[in-house]
Structures are given as C-alpha cells and as structure tokens.
Write a structure and sequence with these properties.
The chain contains three helices and no strands. The chain is mainly alpha-helical. It has a domain of 46 residues. Helix 1 runs parallel beside helix 3.
C-alpha cells in the first residue's frame, strides 16, 4: 500500500522550496514531482499501457524498498522510485536530437 503525504484541502501551494528542509516538505516536493511525471506520461501512453506501467512500477518500487516498510521514510522512497522510473521512461520517448 502506497501512503502519500496528507495535503491540506485548499488548492493553495504551500511556501516550500524544494527539495524541502524537513520530512513534510520533502514528501510534498516528491509528491509534486511524481504528479508532474505522471501527467507527462498520460500524454505519451494509452490508458491501458499507462495502467500496466503504474502497476509494474508500484510492484517494483514496493519490492525494492520492502526492507524499509515499517519506517517513516518508506512512502517517500516509493514515491521517489515511481517518479524516477517515470522519468526514465519519458527519456525513452525523446528523439535523437533532443
């Protein structure tokens, strides 16, 4: 199960400079980066392929950080892993001249 940081109900962006200075800020920054990479992939992949990708990255990242499952850092590690894998895939879509 992936736990994401609890965010305020307001749509206002907190005054945080990433990568953040404490756990809450670092989680917020990691969550924002993941949102960005997810949005970019939504433009590149079909809904079915995107669903398969998300399931695969969730499984891989959960397995990679399973030793930290009981730690408070676990959610941030998994979110960061998902984002890094998304960004690697996005790089594969770039043309040779980019």
């Amino acid at each position: 199960m992936l736990l994401l940081p609890v965010m305020p109900a307001k749509a206002e962006q907190p005054d945080i400079k990433c990568p953040g200075n404490n756990t809450v800020e670092m989680r917020w920054c990691a969550s924002k980066r993941l949102d960005e990479s997810k949005a970019a992939l939504e433009k590149k992949l079909s809904p079915g392929t995107l669903k398969q990708w998300r399931e695969a990255t969730k499984e891989v990242c959960s397995a990679a950080y399973r030793p930290y499952l009981q730690g408070t850092i676990y959610p941030q590690l998994v979110v960061g892993c998902d984002d890094r894998l998304n960004r690697v895939l996005l790089e594969e879509f770039k043309g040779l001249g980019e």
